[in-house]
Design brief:
six-stranded mixed sheet; about 40% strand
Length: about 180
């Protein structure tokens, strides 16, 4: 006796395979994105975006379109990012819906170099944790970032850092009790 598989079962299985392959492709895309950020390969970073993408990274503002995003990295970040930090992505939650997808990632930065009044110094151990909230689009069979939002939330939240800077203070500094 030969069991037959219905057309709807085959279609369902093909859809499930596509979702699984898409999750893997998106995971690779985002891992490559962070690796390229770490080695300052700005053109590869920009290539991860769709032509009409929106990028909102911390206090760098919102940038629309791949060219504006690449310019933000090469003009705003290149002159100020000098440290040789390590980055880890974890806890991906990826949902695929046809040719669009959404993911939330946890980002960890293991900092090594710090700018001080005496120049750059190497200190091992400090860390930061942030979150990526990302939308993706499949274009011509290839997954790309269509909208990216990123903020640091630990140990000091980006909003706390900005408020301290505006007040001339230091986040996390111990204050003498009066």
């Amino acid at each position: 006796m030969t069991a037959s598989i219905s057309d709807s079962t085959i279609a369902d299985l093909l859809e499930r395979v596509d979702r699984l392959e898409s999750v893997q492709a998106i995971t690779k895309l985002h891992n490559d994105y962070v690796r390229n950020l770490a080695v300052r390969n700005w053109s590869a970073v920009a290539d991860a975006y769709t032509h009409d993408a929106i990028c909102d990274i911390r206090h760098h503002g919102v940038h629309k379109g791949r060219d504006a995003i690449e310019e933000m990295f090469t003009q705003d970040l290149l002159p100020v990012v000098h440290s040789k930090d390590g980055y880890i992505l974890s806890s991906p939650n990826i949902t695929v819906d046809g040719d669009t997808a959404h993911a939330i990632w946890t980002w960890h930065r293991l900092q090594a170099d710090f700018k001080t009044s005496l120049g750059w110094t190497r200190i091992w151990g400090p860390w930061s944790e942030g979150a990526y909230d990302v939308e993706y689009a499949r274009e011509a069979g290839e997954w790309k970032i269509s909208k990216l939002w990123f903020r640091v939330h630990a140990p000091d939240h980006d909003d706390e850092i900005a408020a301290a800077k505006a007040a001339g203070g230091v986040v996390g500094a111990r204050r003498a009790e009066l």
